[in-house]
Description:
Blueprint: E1 2-10, H1 14-22, H2 24-30, E2 35-38, E3 45-52, E4 55-69, E5 73-80, E6 93-102, E7 105-115, H3 122-142
Amino acid sequence: xxxxxxxxxxxxxxxxVWKALIDPEFTKQLYxxxxxxxxxxxxxxxxxxxxxxxxxxxxxxxxxxxxxxxNKKLSFTHFTGKAYNPDTEKxxxxxxxxxxxxxxxxxxxxIHDQLKEDDPSYAGSQKGxxxxxxxxxxxxxxxxxxxxx
Length: 149
């Protein structure tokens, strides 16, 4: 199994960082136009949908909520959308966001673990997570996002 872990410190409150993770208004800015849809109840589905290979409602990532503790922890199973990998069910992994107050800042820890050795999404995740998390930090601290293209 492969694991990815990233830690960022953000000049923002727990509530601000949490909102950036779960509010569609923010996820749309952070995840390239994708919004998050979920009841956030453990055992219920979670999906990121937005513009992509299958039109405006392309499923980019989906899974099942494993943990939901407001302003503290969100964890869910991770599968890439079928448009990216028709065999996605073979490659379940897990994403966990953990927040912690550190002084007047918030520590955002992202753990993307349980990736299979041959998971085709590993390289994209390894490259993409630092960009998404840097964008999260920048959006919270400045009110604008980074330009990557």
